[in-house]
Amino acid sequence: MSGLPWVWIWLVLAALLYVGEMLTATFFLLPFGLGATFALIGAFFGAPLWLQWLLFVVVSVFGLIFLRPFFKRLTSKAEKTKAGVDRLIGMTGTVVEGNAPSGANRARIDRELWNVSTEQAEQLPIDTRVRVLRVEGTYLIVEAI
To answer: pLDDT tens across 89-117, in order?
Structure first.
């Protein structure tokens, strides 16, 4: 029963690496967690300690070399997708309301009505086509096109 402590050591190490991966979401610790899992399986079936370490190192290195570039491509595509109001930057719309009591214009952009203003805070005529430059608070800063 001398192999039993290594089963627990690999189990704790694998759990810590997976939890660390969930907290960082960088896909750096995942290959090491997989290596610890394979070493855990080896220890469970009574493999000698040198084979457990070999499994850990080989699977970890394999994961770093082959899996990490795949996950980097996955996450780089996800980062390019804009969410929330950031998705509106660069979109175009039409001014539908001018000279509002607050002095703001309102424009329809992507089927939604937004408070818009220009960088010079000028009034825009109704039916003016605008492009969103940035978001400031509840206003979209636009330019006439």
So the answer is: 899 999 998 765 556 788 999 888 998 98
For the chain, give the secondary structure using H, E and C: CCCHHHHHHHHHHHHHHHHHHHHHCCCCCHHHHHHHHHHHHHHHCCCCHHHHHHHHHHHHHHHHHHHHHHHHHHHHHHHHCCCHHHHHCCCEEEEEECCCCCCCEEEEECCEEEEEEECCCCCCCCCCEEEEEEEECCEEEEEEC
Phi first, then psi: what are they for 12, rounded to 5°? -65, -45
Amino acid making up residue 88: L
> Which pTM does this prediction carry?
0.52
The answer to whether the CB of 57 falls within 8 A of the CB of 65 is no
Tens digit of pLDDT for each residue in 47-59? 999 999 999 999 9
CB-count burial class (<10 Å; 0-12, 13-18, 19+) for 44: middle
